């Protein structure tokens, strides 16, 4: 039940960004926050061609990518209108492909390569999202001045440290891999009575364990939720135990979430919380009492 990961993606921020010094169309929408990252799956859409007056989700992703990387100022409405066509032509010219305003496999391929190798602030645009990236790094414990300049020495150093800590390519650039990781981190706001934090994603059926190391939260383990359900909310870990029986079925290495709801391992679903593998259950049973648990 693990997340499936796209092999090749062009990612976009879900609201448009306009860089300083760039022209702005009347349909532009601006933001100052990194939103949920949407993806363009090149493997899936590499044979798809979109052109003037087409309407689809892929058009939204194209518009978002052009806004983020080229300051196109497009409304991300999924409609391939005249403004989108003109923006595609401008990008095609910049990237050295046939300038026809049609987004086909050739344009998708060169745009993918550009996105994977370019910072969102490659020309020091000082866009609102640049400040948000810096503020997110500050909130994670990195020391830098959130002035919007992603090319500043302290920001590059912080980005490199974050990339190294999260097993990302250490480039010092605010690339798409960095934004994807920050987007995930933005969902997690660790506040715990211990140096550990447990996060349960109900949609992805994943549990992530974070540990505060040298003042910074770092993900130390991720594992599947095999079955079960707990209401969304915030809890604190309670009793631990090596073994207990419910309805004649053995529950091993349980950790209390709330009331009768626990993390546990067993041969089958018992209906008392979240069933996980025995290895993961043993790991959780060693987490300190009163560790914060967030189910979302």
UniProtKB/TrEMBL annotation:
Residues 1-26 form the signal peptide. Keywords: Signal. InterPro entries: Peptidoglycan-bd-like (IPR002477), PGBD-like_sf (IPR036365), PGBDSf (IPR036366). Residues 57-111, 132-182 form the Peptidoglycan binding-like domain. It comes from the Bacteria. This is Putative peptidoglycan binding domain protein. It comes from Clostridium ljungdahlii.
